[in-house]
Amino acid sequence: MTDTPKLLSDLNDRSREVFRRVVEGYLDTGDPVGSRTLTRTLSEKVSAATIRNVMQDLEYMGLLDSPHISAGRVPTQLGLRMFVDGLMEVGEVATADREKIDATMGVNEPDVDTLLDRVGAVLSGVTRGASLVLTPKHEAPIRHIEFVSLAQDRALVVLVFADGQVENRLFTPPLGQTPSSMREAGNFLNALAEGRTLSELRAQIGHEIAARRQELDTLARDLVESGLALWQDAGERHERLIVRGRSNLIGSEADLDRIRTLFDDLERKRDIAEFLELTEQGDGVRIFIGSENKLFSLSGSSLVVSPYMNADRKIIGAVGVIGPTRLNYGRIVPIVDYTAQLVGRMLSGRGKG
């Protein structure tokens, strides 16, 4: 990785100010910033020709780029990284934004996933980006499981945990399910579930199905097997990724097809374990710009993400915002940080995690 602090220290005061003004202007408007614009905003009075020379030097260093024939410049991915690491001024969370985020926590919602979905919706609205919320795996023992048929290709599973939490999850059942086969599957699981977490139940289910295969008809067995696979996918450490506000990315400078690819990947839950591992490499908010994160590099987007922790300071999930690389990082970073801390406190208070 390029040493951005070294690059920054190599700049004199004039070059540093020109660079900072170009980046701030680009993040504010999305347009290339030209020398004539900078002559009106720099702290020292210098000619447009002098500024052009400085910009050419910054371009040679790989920090700025000329998007087309115009005299204006935009920051490169390296330039954005250097700005974020060394020059960005992080503001406070605005009162109106804080109140909207706080309001999601004031709802007495027994279903944690529903509450986190609400958090994602508010985070998307406040930041005008797409929000991500990686929900924690619920490890409390299960008290009751019930399957409810909603349509031929749609069903609901209601999970009641011993700690009082309730989770309702939609899923696509195997073909040919009937209300009676769903009841039978629920009865079978409830007989096994008492005192077990989902992880323990999933480990046990294969043995029990093999031992009691004659007690289940084929359809009910398929439902049990596919249902548990759905709840906790093999090889995945975490339950669910909530994505809200994707429409905020459509119409940005990011390519539409790449945006679709990004969300197709997210909805198939590829690399979700990696998504959380990225946040575990350091405390607090992390920023991934463009191709720095392979999970999101297809979209040419940036990701601002922060883990949240339970009462034992163990990372149990993450919240984040995806947007174009022209994000207002100074505003988004404190919002993501504040939301992650709030979610962590909320879940710790519920005994979740």
TrEMBL record:
Coiled-coil regions listed: none
Record field: transmembrane: none
Gene3D superfamilies per UniProt: 3.30.450.40, Heat-inducible transcription repressor hrca homolog, domain 3, Winged helix-like DNA-binding domain superfamily/Winged helix DNA-binding domain
Key words of the record: Repressor, Stress response, Transcription, Transcription regulation
GO MF: DNA binding
All copies of domain Heat-inducible transcription repressor HrcA C-terminal, residue ranges: 113-333
HAMAP family membership: HrcA
Main function: Negative regulator of class I heat shock genes (grpE-dnaK-dnaJ and groELS operons). Prevents heat-shock induction of these operons.
Family: Belongs to the HrcA family.
Record protein name field: Heat-inducible transcription repressor HrcA
